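INFO worker-7 received task bundle
INFO bundle size: 2
INFO processing item 0
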Amino acid sequence: MDSQSDLRVTVGDRELTATWTDGAPETRTALENVLPVSGDAIRWGDELYISASLDAPLEGGREVVPEGAIAYWPAGEKLCLFWGPTPASVDDEPRAAAPVTVVARLEETAPLADLTGGAELRLERADEP
């Protein structure tokens, strides 16, 4: 595993890595405090989300997010993973239904291209055994 990765992200049987992004220190700290977090994800277009209650406000809220974004939606208490268009997208950009805080980003999204339906989603520190 790349030593620069901060997070291990498991989607079903696919193991991915992610790095923290800048600009959401409160959300990052709140997420770090509850890791590992997992759940049966609900799929919405090319987005998966699980319930996660973090003590963090909306930071730098945005609806259009980068491909591979891991984001928190404080209003709905959901942790979201985006890798392509959603029903809210205008073009091919990943778009949330409401403003979210981007806290990390997957290093690659190609393994998710053939994902069908939902899957268990798990986030943990990359250095966890």
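INFO item 0 finished
INFO processing item 1
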Amino acid sequence: MKRTYQMFAGLLVLLTLSACSPTLTSFTQRMYDEYDWTESELKRIQFYVSDDIVLRRQLTGGKSEIISGEIKVIDGREVEEVVIRRKTPGVLLFLPKENRFAVSFEADGDDRYLVFGPNPKAGSRYALLASEWRRRSGTVTYEGRKFQVDASSAFASLMVDLKKIRKISVSSRTARGRKVND
């Protein structure tokens, strides 16, 4: 009997914890079109990244300033690396152009952002965009500098907590007008 009670209590705790955590869903072009959000509404949505993104750039000789990354030695070369872990929260800074989101995952520095847009090969999820993709890597701009990302980062996409988004959408209403009383 005691063991059954412990199992029930454990299950109850697990269900309570899972109910509190966000249920993340891929942010897609269909969702964007369906809700027809303005830029200011999009800035109120909490985004998350679906997969780890690792940005790397090789440091050349001479003086260099490392702000957000860390220095690593890979194959005898000094490399600056910025890691954005899976489920890291981010916010929309601006829309560079139609269907493009500049999302920042760091609290300081408005030049620390990545650009996401709908990827038809991935169900129109808003995936990481690069200025150029090659077989094993892509080139992105971060902090005004060029970084390389692995090809695995190509499918890193934006995620949202759908429950919270629905609350944002439900809170809107249309005024019906008000007439003067005779």
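INFO item 1 finished
INFO post-check item 1: Residues 2-20 form the longest helix (19 residues).
INFO post-check item 1: Residues 7-19 have pLDDT under 50 and may be disordered.
INFO worker-7 idle
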